[in-house]
Amino acid sequence: MRYFKMNGCGNDFVIIDARSRGSLPLSQMQARAIADRQTGLGCDQVIAVERSIRGDAYMRIWNADGGEVDACGNATRCVAWLLMEEGGAATRRIETPVGMLYAQRAGDRMITVDMGSPLLRWEEIPLARAMNTERLDFSIGALEAPGAVNMGNPHVVFFVDDVEATPVERLGPEVERDPLFPQGVNAGFAEVRSGEQIRLRVWERGTGLTKACGTGACAAAVAAHRQGRTGRKVEVLVDGGSLEIEWRAGDDRVLMTGPIELEATGELPAA
Fold first, then answer.
1. Is the pLDDT of residue 78 over 80?
2. Annotation marks residue 43 as catalytic
3. Could you give the 3-state DSSP secondary structure of residue 21?
4. Do 248 and 135 belong to one domain?
């Protein structure tokens, strides 16, 4: 099977085209082996592109620890670009475990993905108990009142004065494993620099600190607007670049626009 090594703002993937065989029965151990940066191909997430009846392809995602998850914004842009290059179309529909995502070209190796509407009720995050998700009754150290958003996977976003001085690699694992989040959580740390710009770092559940997190950028934009910190359209600066996020008022949908990069291609050995 052919694979593509790609990244979106530095968040990197091994994308396996499994459409010729229909689906890819990848075990947790196999996903970990592929993602291992010492002995495998090395990546933040392993992506399988499978056949879809409803869309142009079905996308599955495994984190570096081998756990399968439902959504990844940066990977969606990369898969969409591959499908567009293959067929010459400007739009593509990608089926995922959490529904259909719609992508379109936005420039040279730039893709916009409609990430759908954010889930904001406490049981949709999910949380272990009822709570106002706009400002959670939750703190870690001096950080408190984060926003919680589900963008296909659960996110909690703390707003900080200086994200560069925030010990993300120490705080992230503590937040990820807190009992308030029964499925674990992605922990975002966001510095609002203006009403139109956010600087963000994300500790990803099952992966760790990454150079970018697309769903995390969407979650940060939604959480910031809900707390009155920004408008509905913002630039989100991540370690690997920048993403444009818009949470539309008219239809409640979140649009993410950002770059993709193709690093390498190859063939996986037959199983």
1. yes
2. no
3. helix
4. yes
